[in-house]
Amino acid sequence: MSKTWFITGAAGGFGRLWAEAALERGDRVIATARSAERLADFAERFGTAVVTVELDVTDREGVFAAVERGLRAFGRIDVVVNNAGYGQFGMVEEVTERELREQMETNFFGATWVTQAVLPVFRRQRSGHLLQVTSEGGVRAYPGIGAYHASKWALEGLSESLAQEVAVFGIHVTCIEPGPYATQWLSHGSRVSDELPEYAEARAANTVEFEVGDPAATSAAVLALVDTEHPPLRLILGLTFPEIEALYEERLATWRAWEPVAREAFGAPRIAPA
């Protein structure tokens, strides 16, 4: 059976690719973006199978209105993709209050508003799949992009709680964690804080070169994800699993080494009141 998707940030990158893949296989899509003009070609190519909506995900009322508009058009929503977001580059000391708040408003609060808007729909349907695009930056961190990581780690934590809360309704939650891809994210989807000269040495020491993947290759994986009966809570896309695995093994080793100290910190066992 065909599915109805609600996708934020559908004007480019993963959002556009996944919207096109869904439409090309016969699904229906509510495609949203900050600029409706960038979605005009969708209507021309796919006709009544797509509804385009101009949406700034930081506008909570606008998010709820966009979901309602999609429902009026198609009657149901089966898959929601929280893709809208950008990266704020800068050392933690360099990021201004405004930059940090705007980063969280889009990447975390925006995704949260979409989540809250669609949950009543999913609960009524007793079905639905929420895809949170958190990136590998939601499970690991690099220097110079702490604000971005903070937004994605926050979304991962929220989503892990959410998955347990809504399972009884037949609702699935998956955090999609792409590694580096050639999506023009660095050139068009990021902002840079003013640099402090004191961090020049640290910046130079932490310069990293990435092998980037073909973003079009992710579409088949996402379609397979939404079609499976038992989707995972997390899905890494790309070649970053070995690095993430090594990072978690290091964390486990550290926790084990410090376990005696942790146990001593518990003190004498007590029975907590019911």
Q: What does this 3D model show about the protein?
A:
α1 packs across α8, α3 packs parallel to α4 and α4 runs parallel beside α5. The mean pLDDT is 95. The chain has ten helices and nine strands. The radius of gyration is 20 Å and the shape is globular. β6, α5 and β7 form a beta-alpha-beta unit. Helices cover 46% and strands 16% of the residues. The strands form two sheets. A seven-stranded parallel β-sheet has the order 3-2-1-4-6-7-9, with helices on both faces. With 274 residues, the chain is α/β, with parallel strands linked by helices. The protein has one domain: 3-Layer(aba) Sandwich (Rossmann fold).
Number of alpha- plus pi-helical segments: 10
Beta-strand proportion: 15-25%
**What is the residue-mean pLDDT, rounded to a whole number?**
95
CATH architecture: 3-Layer(aba) Sandwich
- Major β-sheet annotation: 7 strands, parallel
Low-confidence regions:
none
Strand order across the largest sheet = 3-2-1-4-6-7-9
CATH top level label: Alpha Beta
Our measurement of the CA-to-CA distance between the termini, rounded to an integer number of angstroms, reads: 48 Å
Task: Tell me the total number of β-strands.
Answer: 9
Shape: globular
The CATH topology is Rossmann fold
SSE topology string: EHEHEHEEHEHEHEHHEHH
Number of domains: 1
Which value, in Å, is the CA radius of gyration? Answer: 20 Å
Going by CATH, the homologous superfamily would be: NAD(P)-binding Rossmann-like Domain
- What's the helical proportion of residues? 40-55%
Structural class: alpha/beta
